[in-house]
Design brief:
Oligomer: single chain
Organism: Nelumbo nucifera
Radius of gyration: 23 Å
Family: Belongs to the actin family. ARP4 subfamily.
CATH class of one domain: Alpha Beta
Strand content: 15-25%
GO cellular component, one term: SWI/SNF complex
CATH superfamily of one domain: ATPase, substrate binding domain, subdomain 4
Number of helices: 16
Function: Involved in several developmental processes including organization of plant organs, flowering time, anther development, flower senescence and fertility, probably by regulating the chromatin structure.
Structural class: alpha+beta
Mean pLDDT: 89
GO molecular function, one term: chromatin binding
Length: 445
């Protein structure tokens, strides 16, 4: 139906932590950058807009443009997208995320993220490429229509397809039926996929993802009196060869959200370097004398991290641990019903039809950045063997290659969009013009 081999499709997976984009048929995304953006509000000139804002009605979203222009009736914010733009500290720059619980809440930011992916990173014209977008299993029909509308109206793409994250992960591993455990930045989702369709009624989610674990790590370090200095707050000056002195820099106009973002980048790296899932349930006394692991911070301090290496990953399996992390108590009070990974898996499988439960137990797929933590697969398998029914053969599958585990959703999209048999599945611009935007619900189940 479409130009076969000449034009390759573009696959985009906008996650809560990073956005992955690249060409279908390749084995890894070309562009990977944070899905948060820096935003600076610029002065409004016109009183009409001011009075609108004061009376509590937001100016029409079309009035929010990306850059400052001479027209004097628009509220403006300038958005900075991409790791380089975010790494540069600017006065009054807030760090905003377009997603809340995996669902888009700010379309203006999403639009800018896509724009950055197409024009600055992939260097393509979206008019010439069909687009395959990954979406969360919980995406609402309104969200999907909005996505389609933006793609066809603004980017004028020739064709579009929306595919569920869990389905793409199961494609990446070559299975049509699997239980996908996707632990990303913002949350952890357990979704059963049967013959290429997500069984919506059995999807289980938990707000514990990579960013939450980073937060726990940060609070735990703070409680020990360690302050993480963001990279912009100091410079290193060489006194003698190989000896450096740290000079603190003061930027009074840095926003709290940017400071936090910069600290999280560092803490997240600490977490990825030293943490691993413990072999059994975490126990204060057993882990009291584990050997320390050292980590050098950007400002030259060396941290010694002991029991936290195991305690923090174990939150995924045993959320009641949150109560013993200083500063996180309020979270466990406000979310008393959070379940650990093994419970979520078993609960999800029990909500499925009896006929496919065995097959799901034997193909549990791990995906997402948080799932690439050391020992996570072994620990999940062990816990499930203890809790699952006797007859079930439990098998947890995870790619040995952590890149593949991190990008499994994107890789599944890349495989799908480059299949010959998939080419007649696209929702084309002609169909959009003929049937309207609601037709996407039928074309992309």
């Amino acid at each position: 139906m479409y130009g076969g081999d000449e034009v390759s499709a573009i696959v985009i997976d906008l996650g809560s932590h990073t956005c992955k984009a690249g060409y279908a048929g390749e084995d890894a995304p070309k562009a990977v950058f944070p899905s948060v953006v820096g935003s600076i509000d610029q002065m409004e000139v016109d009183d009409a807009v001011k009075s609108e804002r004061d009376s509590g009605t937001a100016p029409d979203s079309k009035n929010i443009v990306k850059t400052f222009d001479s027209d004097k009736t628009k509220t403006k914010r300038k958005l900075y997208v991409g790791s380089q733009a975010l790494g540069y500290r600017r006065d009054h720059m807030e760090v905003l995320s377009p997603l809340k619980d995996g669902v888009v809440v700010d379309w203006d930011i999403v639009d800018n993220i896509w724009d950055h992916a197409f024009r600055e990173r992939l260097l393509i014209d979206p008019k010439e490429h069909p687009m395959l977008l990954a979406e969360p299993s919980s995406n609402s029909p309104q969200q999907r229509e909005r996505t389609a509308e933006l793609m066809f109206e603004k980017y004028k793409v020739p064709a579009l397809f929306l595919a569920k994250n869990a389905v793409l992960t199961s494609f990446a591993s070559g299975r049509a039926t699997a239980l996908v455990v996707d632990s990303g930045g913002g949350s952890t989702t357990v979704a059963p996929v049967h013959d290429g369709y997500v069984l919506q009624k059995a999807v289980a989610t938990s707000p514990i993802g990579g960013e939450f674990l980073t937060e726990c790590m940060m609070k735990s370090l703070e409680s020990k009196g360690i302050t993480i200095k963001p990279r912009f707050s100091f410079k290193r000056k060489e006194i003698r060869q190989g000896e450096f002195q740290i000079v603190d820099l003061d930027f009074p106009n840095t926003t709290e959200s940017y400071k936090l973002y910069s600290q999280r980048v560092i803490v997240s790296d600490i977490k990825e370097c030293v943490c691993r899932a413990p072999d059994a349930l975490y126990d204060e006394t057993a882990y009291a004398n584990v050997p320390m692991t050292s980590y050098e911070l950007p400002d030259g301090q060396t941290l010694e991290i002991g029991a936290d290496r195991f305690k923090i990953p174990d939150v995924l399996f045993n959320p009641s641990l949150i109560q013993i992390i200083p500063g996180m108590e309020s979270f466990s009070e406000s979310n008393p019903t959070i379940r650990g990974l093994p419970q979520m898996v078993i609960e999800s499988i029990n909500k499925c039809d009896v006929d496919i439960r065995r097959e799901l137990f034997s193909s549990i797929l791990l995906a997402g950045g948080t799932a690439s933590m050391q020992q996570l697969k072994e620990r999940l398998e062990k816990d499930l063997l203890e809790e699952s029914p006797q007859a079930a053969r439990v098998k947890v599958l995870a790619s040995g290659n952590t890149t593949e585990r991190r990008f499994s959703v994107w890789i599944g999209g890349s495989i799908l969009a480059s299949l010959g048999s998939f080419q007649q599945m696209w929702f084309s611009k002609a169909e959009y013009e003929e049937h309207g935007v609601s037709y996407i619900q039928r074309k992309c189940p």
